[in-house]
Amino acid sequence: LSLLCLSPSVTSFGPVSFPPLAQSGLYSSFSQSGQTYGLPPFGALWPGVKSEAAPSEAPSTGQPGFLSFSAAYCPAQAAPLHYSYPSQGKPSVPATPNLWFFSSDSSPPESLPAAAALPTAPPTGAREQDDVSRRNSMGKSKGKNKKAESPPTETDLERIFLWDLDETIIIFHSLLTGSYAQKFGKDPATVLNLGLQMEELIFELADTHLFFNDLEECDQVHVEDVASDDNGQDLTGSGGAGAGGANSGVQGGVEWMRKLAFRYRRLKEIYNGYKNNVGGLLSPIKRDLLLRLQTEIENVTDAWLSTALKSLLLIQGRGKCLNVLVTTTQLVPALAKVLLYGLGEVFPIENIYSATKIGKESCFERIVSRFGKKVTYVVIGDGRDEEFAAKQHNMPFWRISTHGDLVSLHQALELDFL
């Protein structure tokens, strides 16, 4: 070992000093004095949201006049995030954008025991006392939550979802035209047959029980539109519409309008009485036919209605939120559709509007005048009518074209983005 240590062939290693590197003249320091940091446009923060300026807006504002949601938005967040709309009008860029757009709920539990912060366990008596107080506080919290889940009144609503019916919640019209079979690769003859059978049921229910023969030429936007002409007369024993029905008297006269109001009052009573049991209005044969059609249409449409119902029920279960239906179908056939497709519990008759006479833009105006401008409105549909109407009113619009759009909608609702 001593010889090895003295051998000249062994060299010692140590740190080598290098001369300092000088900055190359090719590069110069980058000045950030002119750089401004802030919130990018609304659509850039939310994937799948397309911002378009309304025609009447000045482009210099830099704010979106219309929000269009796309099914491409499919967030995968580990924890739920909360999105909050501005109370009214178009969105504005706040001073603290991160708090306004997305904020994770990181608040500690209300009933966290005091011992949790201590490095050592407390005495047995103190621990039992903490357990008792924790159970009491949890019980109070549950009581508060249950109380908050009561149905909201029209004065404390915060968000209203305006739904289209055909090809958005249900598949009906496209069954008859063949467009659904062509788009999704289904057998055209089978799809058309299902559509025709359901159409027959809809008009049979409308004619037989919902006075469509009388009301087809006296169609209204809303069931309460002629309620001011109703004198409250007892309709028992008069077929539900007064002697002679709505067609008696001079059209437009006082007597005629009064009996028309009787018809709509009775229509409302029938809807409310059978909204959870439409089979009670049908014969046993028609009831069996309805059950079969419901099953077969769900199969051929790959559970379209069930997928839409998930979002409808989620909204219904929230506090301070409401589902409203705005359809281009006449009011009475629309009510028949809602009943036959099992949507009576989701849409009270007071929340159903027909845009056949006045169009969807005017329908939206009526709804805004009813619920107020402080409410945030979200439009969900498949057609240009509701998209244009939403744009005119600066309402967010979520387009439904495929099953994926319905799935993405439900996911956005679950994550409180809508």
Task: Characterise the protein shown here.
There is one protein chain. With 418 residues, the chain is of the alpha/beta class. It has a domain of 256 residues: 3-Layer(aba) Sandwich (Rossmann fold). 41% of the residues lie in helices and 9% in strands. The protein contains 15 helices and nine strands. The strands form two sheets. The chain has a seven-stranded mixed β-sheet with strand order 1-2-9-8-5-6-7, with helices on both faces. β8, α14 and β9 form a beta-alpha-beta unit. The N terminus is likely disordered. Its cofactor is Mg(2+). This is Eyes absent homolog. It catalyses: O-phospho-L-tyrosyl-[protein] + H2O = L-tyrosyl-[protein] + phosphate. GO terms for molecular function: metal ion binding; protein tyrosine phosphatase activity.
SSE order, one letter for each helix or strand: HHEEEHEHEHHHHHHHEHEHEHEH
Number of helices: 15
What is the CA-atom radius of gyration, in angstroms? 32 Å
Question: Could you say what the CATH topology of the domain at 159-414 is called?
Answer: Rossmann fold
Mean pLDDT: 73
CATH class of the domain at 159-414: Alpha Beta
Distance between the termini: 79 Å
Tell me how many strands there are: 9
Oligomeric state of the chains in view: single chain
Largest sheet: 7 strands, mixed
Binned strand content = 5-15%
Unreliable spans: 1-8, 26-128, 131-149, 240-244
Structural class computed from helices and strand pairing: alpha/beta
Shape: globular
- CATH architectural label of the domain at 159-414: 3-Layer(aba) Sandwich
Query: Percentage of helical residues?
Result: 40-55%
* Strands side by side in the biggest sheet: 1-2-9-8-5-6-7
